[in-house]
Amino acid sequence: MRTNPHHRSVDPLTAVRNLGILAHVDAGKTTVTERILYLTGATHKRGEVHDGTTVTDFDPQERDRGITIFAAAVSCVWDGHRINLIDTPGHVDFSDEVARSLRVLDGAVAVFDAVAGVEPQSEAVWRQADHHGVPRIAFVNKLDRAGADLDAAVASIRERLHTVPLVVQMPIGREDGFTGVVDLLRMRALVWADRRDSFEEGPVPEALREEAGRRRRLLEEAVAELHPAALEEFCAESSVSAGTLAAALRELTLGGEGVVVLCGSAYRNRGIEPLLEAVTAYLPSPLDVPAVRGTLGDTVQERAADPAAPFAALVFKVNATATGRLTCLRVYSGTLLKGDAVLDMGVGRTERVGRILRVQADRHAETDRAVAGDIVAVVGLKSARAGTTLCAPAAPLVLEPPSAAEPVVSVAVEARRSLDTDRLAGALARLVEEDPSLVVRTDAETGQTVLSGLGELHLEVAVEKIRRGHGLEVAVGRPQVAYRETVARGVSGLVYRHVKQDGGAGQFAHVVLDVEPLEVAPGSAGEFVFRSAVVGGRVPQEFVRAVEAGCRDALAEGPLGGHPVTGLRVTLTDGATHSRDSSEPAFRTAGRLGLREALRAGAMALLEPVAEVTATVPDEAVGGVLGDLAARRGRVSGSTARTGTTVITATVPLAELFGYATRLRSRTQGRGTFTSRPAGYAPAPAVPALR
């Protein structure tokens, strides 16, 4: 029987592993993390998601909903290796949290459900890891479930992720009878007895030897196809030794040419020790990844993962609480000591590090230093944001920050009590500090505070965080859409006389206006054009400018619903002045009131903002997506076929896009994505001021 060696001393950089746990929601990422913490001695009780007792899902909302929302970092020791682990969210609304984590990780464990195989969000996080060049190993979880099938899950990895799965284990028993795995490298059986935390190692059971031999042969052939040294040995010996296989698997993993596949059941604590051994054997240390590149002005510099090099680190997460800020960072080079001064390249200011913490989700252990390769949290920094580079003041450098996703969904938020307005503004500012994928703005026309994010659940969680964390009652509604009014049919020769006499100097202005629609490019909101056709100096030039200013005043509110007016041309054709009572204010008033009257006399039309939507959807869902766009009054402008997917472009009224992210995901089983950008204005079919 093997014993847990987590108590051995930790050694230098080669013994550090920075990895993330990636997967679709409900594949078992958090349970895998909990079992790793338990087996490495970081916790003394196994946390359960359904009981709300997990370490990494510590936020009340995560425990209420039973899903991971916020990436949580934990640190533990296994077999002389320091493992810095980040449990990432699986829901698509929190994909930006995953991207920020991947930016600072060296490797990852992708967890798959043995029943469902590769699920939609599994594809999304896999593509994110490809983008960041993060080596991965795969863990097929939940082999104890009814319908679990390792081979089907492996086939889906091959087909949907377009990678070469290198299966190094086979299960012993099926579904409820799953008791262990056969290690195909060493050809040994690892069996976990009920209610035991450790496994018994022994020979492969007689009934499984033939199948294990066949699978070992498939593994050797797959590795030999990809690795020259393994191919040479395979040709010479007709087999590949365990040592050559292990070395080849590590190189193939680091190069991204294949993915090592292990299996087990995290809930039943089966398969976690071999997973940890695979993490230390195949995933990279900070020394195995390329030196980080940064810029200083126009020059590009590299910083090796060397504790003696100048300090450089990247902030990937900020927790802004009422009692202070916790800044999570990855140290890429150098050494950080408690009390050190660091340069925040985001604001160009030097700050002092108060404390350095090893993070255990919401619990922390203080340490006196952090070296290259470490993931730690620091206290004392006031201005650092996610994506900020921290470096030694004498050796400035800017590391590439993780890119923030563009928000696609918005809601209007306001405090139910006017006394809480300032508190709400502070709470929103703190939210944006913590999550750069949230955007807060004030609509210049409606005056609403608008919160934008990556999905309805994303915004729902953010608003709930304000309610729980700050004790604020918040009203949430759909943001008002900024409509426009335009001239459909103009008027000619409208005469307006402004005469006012109430003692002293009076006011006199006489104007004749022509108002007509302005031909503009399709989709634009148009402009306002003013010109004068007055001849003979009947209206002096300074009064002409006053009439134009008065007309611009009138554009603020149209006759249909008080919306701004656009897309018209006004011509001053004639006018008259009084030698004593005419003035610029008089002609400005005449221009404002005259144009208002002209707009009421003509025919007006309402314009609504439209957006250009680009949706990427699986081929089998194209019909449903097109039907939904048509129901939203969308006009499809084109579609392009790609491998397995179709890209649809359409122009859709902005008012119809609220809720579209959720609808698109439900119609495409979570695999559809879309982006939108403003595309101007188009005629509205009905007066929406009453909507």
Automatic annotation (TrEMBL):
Residues 669-691 are annotated as: Disordered. SUPFAM superfamilies: EF-G C-terminal domain-like, P-loop containing nucleoside triphosphate hydrolases, Ribosomal protein S5 domain 2-like, Translation proteins. Signal peptide: none annotated. The gene is fusA. The keyword Cytoplasm applies. Residues 14-287 form the Tr-type G domain. HAMAP family: EF_G_EF_2_B. The keyword rRNA-binding does not apply. This is Elongation factor G.
